[in-house]
Predict the structure.
Amino acid sequence: PRSASLAERLVKYDMRLNRPDPKSCERGPSRAITVRQLMDFYEYFQSFIRGRSMYYIDPNIVRPLTAKYKLSFAERVGPHQVQWFISHWWGTEFQDTCSAIQRHAKSCCKSQGEESWMLLS
């Protein structure tokens, strides 16, 4: 079986979000995503992301997902209130960023079921 192209995966992910009419929200602490949302995104596009960084992910995956809505990624996937602000360098391999965020969530947020919120800068 043929692997899906990135364009096909983007369409399927967009449909999978099941948010046909996403809304904008105010910039700041109410525009965050959960660790679960981040990991779902990473796992879904992992075969394209591989060892790449946000310098690849932003123009090739994030912007195509958000452009037609003119919204941020958090607004597109469903924004949440921030509990932890996470700043990261875009040049880090995305898998390393995700791994560090998962470790943080597991170490400090066990009672919250790893639903630690974050805001990606």
Notes: The CA atoms of residues 25 and 31 lie 7 Å apart. Strands lie at 33-34, 84-86, 117-120.
